[in-house]
Design a protein that fits this description.
single chain; Rossmann fold; three-stranded antiparallel sheet; 10 strands; about 25% strand
Length: about 260
């Protein structure tokens, strides 16, 4: 891959647009709830568990865990971008460190959670190996990200690439890639499935506002709405509208 086409690093990307991303989540905290719930369902957490949320972004997954389990589950956040992590609640331990080299103690977590951060990373294998190192024997990893050939991927690397500062050169997951990478890192009982996780809103205007802020889009509202409908798909629901977002979800168990 030539330097001029090389995607920005995760840290570089979110140092630049963490502010608008976090503002979108603050204004529409439930928009991505289906996405988060699908990940947490795979973890099947229990009281006393310790979870590493990595990359943690602004604490979206961590907040969901605490909402569901309170203080019964301990969450540690690893986020490469200090700018992105500024809004994470003070109840969480936060480490601004590379995802592939956290510096945390080996075998200190029962679970690792990772939501939609890895498509900004070219070489994911060191990250999978780091997760294996962090987990206790029998610990669980749950990870989700954009998959090649989906409407989600088409929106991110076409419209968004043209209309967000710095572009968007996502490296999306092919079918079987999570399975291969996790098994190579030593995980067992690996499963992966492409999952529909609609983003939900009261109206199309809210959906457009959310996406414009989340991705720092520099385009008109009608352009954003048309692009979302043409690539991802928008449907009406009893409570408003849903953007037909899809992600590939994978789960694995640390070797006993």
């Amino acid at each position: 891959m030539s330097a001029q086409h090389r995607p920005s690093s995760y840290k570089q990307t979110f140092d630049a647009r963490a502010g608008t991303y976090n503002e979108a989540t603050r204004r529409y905290p439930d928009a991505r709830e289906n996405e988060r719930k699908a990940l947490l369902d795979l973890l099947d957490l229990k009281p006393g568990d310790r979870v590493c949320d990595t990359p943690a972004g602004g604490g979206f997954v961590a907040d969901g865990i605490t909402r569901d389990y309170g203080d019964a589950v301990k969450v540690v956040c690893v986020e490469p971008s200090a700018v992105f992590s500024e809004v994470i609640g003070t109840r969480f331990e936060v480490y601004n460190a590379p995802v592939e080299a956290t510096g945390l103690t080996s075998g200190s977590f029962n679970a690792v959670a990772s939501l939609a951060g890895l498509h900004h990373v070219e070489d994911r294998q060191p990250i999978f190996s780091e997760w294996q190192r962090l987990l206790v024997a029998g610990g669980v990893v749950a990870v989700a990200d954009a998959a090649s050939g989906t409407g989600t991927a088409a929106f991110l690397n076409s419209f968004l690439d043209r209309y967000t500062p710095g572009g968007h050169k996502g490296i999306f997951f092919d079918a079987g890639e999570f399975t291969h990478g996790l098994e190579r890192a030593g995980f067992e009982e690996v499963t992966e499935v492409l999952t529909s996780v609609p983003w939900t809103f009261r109206c199309v205007d809210d959906m457009v506002d959310f996406c414009t802020r989340l991705f720092d889009v520099k385009a008109g509202r009608c352009e954003v709405a048309t692009a979302l409908n043409d690539t991802v798909g928008i449907v009406s629901t009893d409570s408003g509208v849903a953007l037909q977002w899809e992600l590939m979800y994978a789960r694995g168990c640390s070797a006993q």
